[in-house]
Specification:
The protein has 86 residues and is of the alpha/beta class. The protein has three helices and three strands. Helices cover 40% and strands 19% of the residues. The protein is globular and about 30 Å long.
């Protein structure tokens, strides 16, 4: 199962990402936020902790097109996009 964590770097989102990373059924986590640097920071902080691979994505949830693109990308097959493991 893939997880798209919108607002992932926030206080509650970061807790949810940490929990999801430890679940055996989670195969990938996309940490998405309007602030790409914040999303990348969480991915880097959790790197090496084990669990599901993660990547950061910049998305503004108030932008319908950007949100649809993020949802489509998070549901695409790994071969159709570039991924980065934590």
């Amino acid at each position: 199962m893939r997880v798209l964590a919108l607002g992932g770097p926030g206080a509650m989102g970061a807790v949810a990402v940490r929990v999801a990373a430890g679940l055996p059924e989670v195969t990938e986590i996309v940490v998405a936020d309007k602030r790409l640097e914040a999303a990348q920071g969480l991915v880097h902080r959790l790197a090496g902790a084990g669990g599901a691979p993660m990547r950061a994505l910049q998305v503004d949830v108030t932008d319908d097109t950007a949100l649809r693109t993020a949802l489509a990308e998070s549901c695409s097959t790994p071969s159709a996009r570039t991924t980065a493991s934590a």
